Amino acid sequence: MKRKLFLTGLFCLVMLFANAQQYDFPSPVSFSPGLSGASDTTVWSLFSNPSGICDVGHIAAGCGYHNSFLIEALSSQTVFVVVPLSLFHGGIAYSRFGNELFNQQHFSVSMARDIAPCLKMGVRFRYLIRTIQNTEGAEVFTVDAGFSFDVSDDVVLSVYSRNPAGQSLKDDFSEQPLPSFLALACNVKLSPVFNITADLSHRNDLSRQLYGFMMSARVHSLVELRSSVSAKPVRLGFGASVWWEGFELTLAASHHDRLGLSSTAGIVWHLPAKRGGGK
Which one of 40, 54, 86, 112 has the fewest beta carbons within 10 angstroms of its own beta carbon? Predict the structure, then answer.
């Protein structure tokens, strides 16, 4: 009986978590600080707008850890690799959310390509498996897509659609909606070292709009800092990236006005040699 009560409480916690976050590993560059991820053009776009991996010019492999609201059961881990090929840029990722009693596993394959000098498009195929101890598992296949358009040398518009079909995880007893949204972002480079991003997304699964704004500054040739605010609910976020000898360390944290602090950390190894059609 105690185990059943614990599982019920954990499931309710996860449902509450769903209203604030997503189950996949959040990009520490964009989603973790509070944005939708539409504007992401780093290796971490493997977990946000897939068109962003077009800007990854070398083979990159990495791992990451995310914790939500200081609750161990609401943590996720990931490993991934991105490879620029002659025909397209590709990436594969594995992430796991939860613990032994309740968890989700994500397997994803992303592909992106430069369609024109100013247009990039990408798509991600994702296979999810949910496991609840002593119950039958549930699984689902989803598709995400996005593109980015260079309006000028300093202005980029991006569109990102996550799970547009509104897929959900179902079993004999319940149906668990998965995050589904359409996002639009505008990134403006005010100077070679300073960027601002405005972000708007509509959560189909929650029937509401989310707004975000982020500033990023290259304070040193090897250090970039970020700060953001998003609503509603109100979230304040900050982050930093540090590069050294082919390695990139990225940290991010955000504070939810009701649920508290979440944090993300990731490390990426950028191989020095170019492959295929890498930039």
Answer: 86
